[in-house]
Design brief:
MBL_superfamily_lactonases; Metallo-beta-lactamase, Chain A; alpha/beta; 6-stranded mixed beta sheet; 16 strands; 315 residues; hydrolase activity; zinc; 7 helices
């Protein structure tokens, strides 16, 4: 019998991280915009899942608290007028608890968060950055240009807050393609690589094989995911908005296409072909590599089945 492909084995004295799910609010999605063969009338209220990752250095015994995604803003007046118009189509929504309150309810002060990694800067993932005054914000390549200038007619700058993030504490990861250029401030101490059994580029954030940021192109400019080792042979893959329904990862549904209003077709992804490539890579990881749990941001089924894994619980 052929062996399953595997991710890197733990190193000697491997550091493992602890991951806890966080409530980040909820929104309501029409299934027909996201999956093929959907009931055109069906709308589903889903969470915007966020996660606390705790990494402890053996040298200093210092724990770094990293939050992946921030969910919805609790104060909708802080969204732009264009964002609010879009949000009106995603009702009902809920913002209680939001990510800050979810942390406090679990015994963690948002002021003690050292790093916030945003999968991307859509309204339901950006949250309330001001709740994290001591955090370094890490975003994917191209994100800061998107916030400042938008991303074409389907992604006008009015869909984003140009001053959403604290620029002096925000670091844009370098592009996978070293020939790409960006005026944004970028991380230079990290390099993209490939892992065995996984087709997407990753970046070893802490330098010890415990947490990888994954370049996950397709959904929005700068979209990233996170892959973390929580025990020997056990990994968690946080997929953000790689897809909006886990059945797509399982191959049971496809990415829905719909009118772009200009005589063509579009999906909820800025680059559908790239998104399908990312989905394929994550789907293979989920199906073929033992010990990997994949969680996407809007998986209501995962939320209902895993209440005990929210802070102060853990995955």
């Amino acid at each position: 019998m052929a062996e399953h492909p595997s991710l890197p084995p733990p190193a000697e004295n491997q550091i493992y991280v602890t991951i806890s799910a966080l409530e980040g609010g909820s929104l309501t999605l029409p299934e027909s915009l996201f999956i093929t063969d959907a009931d055109p009338q069906k709308r589903t209220t889903v969470p915007s899942l966020c996660f606390l990752i705790r990494h402890t250095s053996p040298e200093s015994n210092k724990t770094t608290n990293l939050v992946f995604d921030l969910g919805l803003k609790r104060d909708f007046s802080k969204y732009t007028e264009t964002q609010q118009h879009h949000i009106a189509q995603r009702q009902p929504t809920s913002t209680s608890p939001d990510t800050g309150e979810s942390l406090r309810n679990g015994g963690v002060n948002p002021e003690d968060i050292g790093v916030v990694v945003l999968s991307h800067v859509h309204w339901d993932h950006i949250g309330t950055p001001s709740d994290f005054p001591n955090a370094k914000f890490v975003v994917g390549s191209g994100t800061l240009d998107l916030l400042a200038n938008g991303g074409g007619y389907l992604y006008p700058k009015e869909l984003f807050n140009h001053d959403e993030l604290p620029f002096e504490r925000t670091y844009e990861l370098p592009p996978v393609n070293p020939q790409s250029t960006s005026a944004a401030k970028q991380q230079t101490e990290h390099k993209w690589e490939k892992l065995p059994a996984f087709d997407l580029h990753v970046l070893d954030y802490f330098g010890d094989g415990s947490v990888y940021i994954v370049d996950a192109p397709g959904h929005l400019f700068g979209h990233v995911n996170l892959l973390a080792m929580i025990a020997e042979g056990r990994w968690v893959y946080l997929g953000g908005d790689c897809c909006h329904d886990v059945r797509i990862l399982k191959g049971e549904k496809g990415v829905a296409m719909y009118s772009d209003g200009c005589g063509g077709l579009r999906s909820v992804h800025v680059d559908t072909e790239a998104a399908e490539g990312t989905i394929g890579a994550i789907g293979r990881l989920m199906r073929e590599v033992e010990g990997v749990e994949v969680v996407v941001a809007h998986d209501g089924g995962w939320r209902r089945a895993n209440g005990g894994r929210f802070l102060p619980g853990a995955l």
